[in-house]
Design brief:
The complex is a heterodimer of chains A (319) and B (262). Chain A is 29% helix and 28% strand. Chain A contains 9 helices and 18 strands. Chain A has a 7-stranded parallel sheet, with helices on both faces. With 319 residues, chain A is of the alpha/beta class. The longest helix of chain A is centred in the N-terminal third of the chain and has 17 residues. With 262 residues, chain B is of the alpha/beta class. Chain B is 28% helix and 30% strand. Chain B contains 7 helices and 15 strands. A 9-stranded mixed sheet of chain B has the order 11-10-9-12-8-1-6-7-13, sandwiched between helices. In chain B, strands 2-5 form a two-stranded antiparallel sheet. In chain B, a hairpin with a 4-residue loop joins strand 10 and strand 11. In chain B, helix 2 packs across helix 6 and helix 4 packs across helix 5. The longest helix of chain B has 16 residues. The N and C termini of chain B lie far apart (61 Å). Classes of the chains: A alpha/beta (319), B alpha/beta (262). Chains A and B meet through helix 3, helix 4, strand 7, strand 9 and strand 10 of A and strand 2, helix 4, helix 5, strand 9 and strand 10 of B. Strand 13 of chain A pairs antiparallel with strand 11 of chain B.
């Protein structure tokens, strides 16, 4: 094996995503352990502009693949497979993003690479060891991969972004796209969940999660919101259940919020939720489970039953 | 038209649990239908109800106990089910590749036009089986689908993929295809009493590796779990102590101090 690492950057609608710069750090560390070089691929869109931005510390070569305007998984699978065949690296790394979920497993299958996903830690000492979470983030596991080359996708927010600088070589890569094998077409994008309220503007968010149990109990949170003149938001299950509209959802697939105070009620703190609210100035969590991950990022915590605490709080504000 | 829906019995850990070896102790685990698969089942049943001549089949990889879970899919309206299991599968640590291979063998027998699969399973959270399955079968696919616009018999599925940050991608996918289904795409129904009764008489066909024409090497994997532990708490939160009234009073003081509530 060459010891080289091939990292594939993620972007959307003209902008590289933060995880792409974190990917450079994870890729560099892995390449150091493997004793090889870090190659970075960027596929479709303004690849030359992206290459400039991806020129950061630790990157050896950037491969630009000018094929299409936006992400298309059929094109990505062909491009990454062709580049992998050309470079014969020891590892393929990519973000565990929604687009990563859409092409990495197919590449791994096609290239017969063992795949581990959603890594929160990587180390290599004769073989790869991947740290992952299980059972809804309640535990961490380590997984050993006794084969090379291998593929691994990384979770955003777990590595520092690579520092600007460096002197990466930029090379354009072309391959023969098999048009007949492109069976999917991206026809557009749509912003969802605009609506009447922008939770992104709120100073005080009262956010409700699965712990509320029943739709009718949302009324209790509404009373609190009214008594404190706050804005109501929620975690994903509440919106999935249709109890609140999409524009109230905080998280990776919802809205990123940065209020002065974020009061999380009955929210366990799944990683997708935390990604949307960790920038809040002050985080307060109310949860019955003292081990709920939300307490790891909370500034203040109440271990208790929301059905006791919330009515008492409403009373405090004369509700 | 035939729709195959992959379902998984997943383990959920109790609030208080202990780790034994490299897994949570069996006594702290409860089994249920994977949340994402529940939405995939609903999508399959809706297609069946909307179209004439649509057959729905659920497939799972799991021990006999998992029949309880798959019966939930049958009770919600899925026509019949296939369960893959034998001693070799039981003794293996199934990675994405092995799962995709087992499901592909069933799909090759069933020849579905559409396969619906949850985006991920809430125990292991790999999120990769559906797309790996599509690639293995030579099917098209779309991952993280939160809206499906197609009628039975359509050659193309128009889907929305839920990207991060409140953006949806509109994509057309040629059939046959695998769609990995995101929660919130629909409202999964509760099984009716009638459905539960009917499910008792529906077929759950057991399949071994041998039945599927596969050898035991199919479940061999270079990936193995080496440890499990509770992450060290990074919490430096200040906890409000006392009963609910005292906790609420302290929180109210904090909110006033921060100037967000009066």
């Amino acid at each position: 094996m060459s010891g080289d690492v091939l990292a594939v950057a993620d972007y959307r609608r003209g902008e590289l995503r933060d995880v792409s710069f974190e990917l450079l750090t994870a890729g560099r560390e892995l390449a150091d352990d493997l004793g090889g070089e870090l190659h970075v691929a960027v596929i479709a869109g303004d690849v030359d502009g992206f290459a400039e931005e991806l020129t950061r510390e630790g990157v050896d070569t950037i491969h630009t693949v000018a094929e299409g305007e936006e992400f298309n998984h059929d094109v990505y699978v062909q491009a990454v497979t062709a580049l992998f065949d050309e470079l014969s690296p020891s590892a393929l790394v990519a973000p565990n993003s929604v687009n990563g979920l859409d092409y990495v497993p197919a590449v791994a299958t096609r290239l017969e690479l063992p795949l581990t996903t959603d890594a929160v830690g990587l180390s290599y000492d004769d073989s790869l060891e991947v740290t992952r979470e299980m059972y809804g983030s309640k535990v961490e596991t380590t997984v050993a991969v006794d084969a090379e080359p291998f593929a691994v996708s990384i979770r955003g927010g777990e590595w520092e972004a690579a520092a600007p600088g460096g002197d990466a070589t930029v090379e354009s890569f072309s391959f023969d796209l098999d048009e007949d094998a492109v069976g999917s077409r991206v026809t557009g994008f749509e912003e969802v969940g605009g609506g009447d309220v922008d939770i992104g503007d709120a100073e005080f968010l009262v956010s409700v999660g699965r712990g509320i149990e029943e739709e009718e109990n949302i009324e209790l949170i509404e009373e609190l919101v009214e008594a404190t003149d706050a804005t109501m938001s929620s975690s994903r299950p509440i919106v999935d259940n249709g109890w609140l509209p999409k524009n109230r959802q905080v998280g990776q697939s919802g809205k990123q919020v940065t209020p002065d105070v974020y009061l999380a009620i009955g929210i366990s703190g799944a990683v997708q939720h935390v990604a949307g609210m960790k920038g809040s100035d002050t985080i307060v969590a109310v949860n019955t489970d003292p081990n709920a991950p939300i307490f790891d990022i909370a500034d203040y915590g109440i271990v208790g039953d929301l059905f006791d605490v919330v009515p008492a709080l409403i009373e405090e504000f004369g509700g | 038209m035939k729709v195959l829906v992959t379902v998984k019995e997943v383990a959920e850990a109790a609030d208080d649990f202990e780790i034994e070896g490299d897994d949570i102790g069996e006594q702290y685990l409860e089994y249920d239908l994977n949340e994402w698969d529940d939405y995939a089942v609903e999508a399959a049943v809706q297609l069946q109800e909307e179209g004439d001549d649509v057959e729905t089949v659920a497939v799972t990889i799991g021990p006999e106990r998992s029949e309880e879970t798959i019966r939930m899919a049958l009770a919600k309206g899925v026509d019949r089910a296939v369960r893959v299991w034998d001693d070799d599968v039981a003794g293996a640590e199934l990675d994405v590749e092995a799962r995709a291979e087992l499901l592909a063998a069933v799909a090759e027998e069933e020849e579905p036009d559409l396969i619906l699969s949850g985006v991920q399973a809430n125990d292991t959270g790999f999120g990769a089986t559906g797309v790996a399955l599509a690639e293995r079968l030579g099917f098209e696919w779309a991952a993280v689908v939160n809206h499906l616009d197609m009628e039975a018999g359509d050659p193309v599925a128009a889907v929305r993929r839920e990207l991060e940050g409140g953006v949806e991608e509109l994509t057309e996918v040629d059939l046959p295809a695998v769609l990995t289904i995101q929660t919130g795409i629909n409202e999964p129904r509760y099984a009716s009493l009638r459905g539960i009764r009917q499910a008792q008489s529906k077929e759950i066909a057991p399949k071994t590796l041998d039945d599927l024409g596969l050898g035991p090497d199919i479940v061999e994997t270079p990936i193995r779990r080496t440890a499990m532990y509770e992450p060290e708490s990074e919490s430096d939160a200040t906890y409000f102590e006392g009963d609910a009234d005292e906790q609420a009073a302290a929180l109210a003081d904090l909110l006033r101090e921060k100037g967000v509530a009066r």
